[in-house]
Amino acid sequence: MAISAQLNAKLNEQITNEFFASQTYLSMSCMFEELGLRNLSKMFRTQSDEERGHALKILDYIPTVEGKVKLAPIPAPQETWESVLAAIEASLEHERKVTSQVHELMALAIKESDYATQSFLKWYVDEQVEEVDSQQQLVQVAKMAGHHMIMLEAYIIHLNK
């Protein structure tokens, strides 16, 4: 069964959204690197790679349901944030936005009775629960660390063990 034109267009939009998320996290990674927060930088570089993977997964899915991939320009990400905490809080808000986008996609797939796309999107729904949770935890730890970013760096090392 071919995917509807509307759902195809929305999935193409999500590819752009995921690439934008990747670029945003890469920008955050660069900022953290410049501040000497190498573990936080590495964490956000990994997050950037993961978001790119999310985009490619959608890109690979669309042709399997007789859709057409249409890539759009990716907006430039913000380059700096007023603080490390502000950047981390922005990442949480971004994950919440992506969650909303994924839920809208799922709602459309349900409305159209597109069971294949519902099945495909379930992974994204589950993934967003993890993404929001991990960013919420990072915000909490960053708040507790305050100006002692070395504590945040130590927390991230602990996460990666």
Shape: elongated
Number of E-state strands: 0
Structural class: mainly alpha
- Beta-strand percentage? under 5%
Which stretches are low in confidence, meaning pLDDT under 50 for 5 or more residues running? none
The span between the termini is 45 Å
Largest sheet: none
> What's the number of helices?
5
Mean pLDDT: 95
| Helix content class | over 70%
Q: Kindly provide the radius of gyration, computed on alpha-carbon positions and rounded to a whole number of angstroms.
A: 17 Å
Helix-strand pattern: HHHHH
Report on the structure:
The mean pLDDT is 95. The chain is an all-alpha fold and 161 residues long. Helices cover 79% and strands 0% of the residues. It has helices at residues 5-34, 38-64, 84-111, 115-145, 149-159. It is elongated, with a radius of gyration of 17 Å. The chain has five helices and no strands. Helix 1 (5-34) packs antiparallel against helix 2, helix 1 packs antiparallel against helix 3 (84-111) and helix 2 (38-64) crosses helix 5. The longest helix is centred in the last third of the chain and has 31 residues, at 115-145.
